[in-house]
Amino acid sequence: MTLSLFDAPDGREALAERAALLRSEILRHDHLYYVEATPEISDEAYDALFRELCDIEAAHPELVTPDTPTQRVGGMPTKQFATVEHAVPMLSLANTYSRQEVEDFDRRVRSALDVDHVVYTCELKIDGLAMSLTYRDGVLVRAATRGDGERGDDVTANVRTIRSVPLRLSPVMFTGAPLLDIEVRGEVFMGIDDFTRLNEEVVESGEKPYANPRNLASGTLKQKDPRLVAKRPLRFTAYWLQAEALRIPSQFAAHTLLSQLGFATGAATEQVSSVDGIMAFIDRWTVERHTLPFQIDGVVVKVDDVQLQDELGSVARAPRWAIAYKFKAEQATTKLLDITLQVGRTGAVTPVAELQPTPLAGSTISRATLHNEDFVRELDLRIGDTVTIEKGGDVIPKVTAVVIEQRPHDAQPWHMSPTCPCPERSTLHKPDGEAAWYCDHAACPWQIRRRLQHFASRDAMNIDGLGERTIDQFVDAGLLQSIADIYTLPSQRANILELDRWAPKSVDRLVEGLAASTLQPWHKVLFALGIRFVGEGVAKILCKAFPSVDALMAATKEELVAVHEIGDRIAESVLDFFADTSNRDLIEALRAAGLQLSAAVDLSQVSQHLEGKTFVVTGTLTTMTRTQAEEAIERHGGKVAGSVSKRTTYVVAGESAGSKLAKAQELGIPVLDEEAFYVLLHKQ
Predict the structure, then answer these.
(1) Residue 548, number of CB atoms within 10 A of its CB
(2) Gap between the Cα atoms of 6 and 68, Å rounded
(3) Global pTM?
(4) Engineered SS bond to 465: which of 449, 474, 502, 513, CB 3.0-4.6 Å?
(5) Interatomic CA distance for residues 529 and 597, integer angstroms
(6) What is residue 319's three-state secondary structure?
(7) Secondary element (H or E) of residue 83
(8) Hey, which residues are catalytic here?
(9) For the segment 452-497, what is each residue's pLDDT rounded down to a tens digit?
(10) Domain boundaries, given as residue ranges, for the chain
């Protein structure tokens, strides 16, 4: 029996067929409206189809399918997002800002490939959030954020509400096989008109407006309730495609296939074969970007041939085969109302420009950093001046100049205060050779807040339930006075429940977040301590050389600077930190709380017998995760690459290895199963 949309269903079999027909039609109309912008029916007709499907599924839950469009209205709230591992790392792009830098990129690519010219694909860089979508048998099964590039948050329930994300792929054949099991990457964003409308509603309700579309999109995806996400007009555009067991030959071909599969793929994509072609694309969109219905902050340039991408590989967290050309910062003029001071987590006291609010590059700017006292003097900034401001990389606002001809006669010069702006009013000091002034008072509440915020942040201890507002509240209530106090919070349950907006469930969430944070690895703990000049990368280097906090605390300056990439400045900062008895007391408090103050494996005792060998790990391993396998390789001196090339020494292949295994077999690269990898790993 075959039904049309206008037939009345009768019986369960007919209802099932009717539901399938409704799902197909609704998804088709979603694509026409949200991707193609060519609707065929009225909103009223669409709503009628949607209501009928909802009624059928409500009466017969057994007819609900994973790809039903009724899921777009959002399911029940989730307590927290699960962490998922990316099959292929989601790398960041190196930024460029000039033709010379583009020429340098082109020269590096041609030199590495030993060719005279290369074909590139140019794409618009939408200012959104990177997202990975996984499809199995043509159905969306997972959506994950970029996170740290290796692991992200599972936000599937939220992404299902985005109507430009296909819940089921359109049927597409490629080299004789259907594209069903694929991963798609792209950007989640919000259109300018939608953002403006939402902000108008927020202002009318008396609330503070959102800063820019990207921030609003990011905050929306972090919502724990998909029903709230469904009310926000988020969109998705795709730019990357990987199919299991099938090799997509080029970036441009991927765009074509993505469009056929049902994805929006951006307003413009072009193939070019020279720097002149790249710059012509950039120049065009530098002018025309303001005509787009969404924000872009640059252009992405990629080597088109995927095989050449594999040969080029990546360095650190960025691929060698792609760059992002960032548009020059937009500028505006406004009035400098005042200069205030703020204190960072290291005690650095920074002057901040308090500005007459003015729109700039999609957001309203009312404050901007002035870096240090010398910067203010060099610009000869005075209170009341008209100043030029810009957003560096379209992100960080800064003051760049004074409009001298508009200086009022009563403009007031500014002088650095000799005391900290905190209630302690301690005397500031300026170390020899540095531009910044510092507050060293242990009880400075501003410093305490920022140290706590850094310690609990996602890239450090990642403590769920301990955000900026909570920290402010706990400091004001006297519950937090140092980092060591964080892990005493479970014993403060009664006091926490007396505070505004706290209930037993929210305290339980905080306690669970604290317990989970104790599993963060040693290098995360070291980064969380907030030692000057010890960022994430330096923390990893130090933890590899000194596999425990005790080893690091016992290290001499000579031993520290002997480590590759550790110089005098970092070494002296580490020594100064651990020379402070209060910091040593903090370490003991963290040790008592159960934090990981040593590596899971003593790296100093591991051999270097894999030195000079490059591995690619692919597929699902049964005795360890892919990340654990890669860490084991690095502990034994080997290198890990994200793609297979002629430079690859071994490919470690688990179940469902896919295209990387095929590429290894094509190039004749040795493939290790899990057992062979284990034997090689432990060979002395």
Answers:
(1) 17
(2) 20
(3) 0.54
(4) 513
(5) 11
(6) strand
(7) strand 83-85
(8) 125
(9) 999 999 889 999 889 888 998 998 899 998 898 999 999 999 999 9
(10) 12-65, 94-326, 331-413, 445-517, 522-603, 606-681
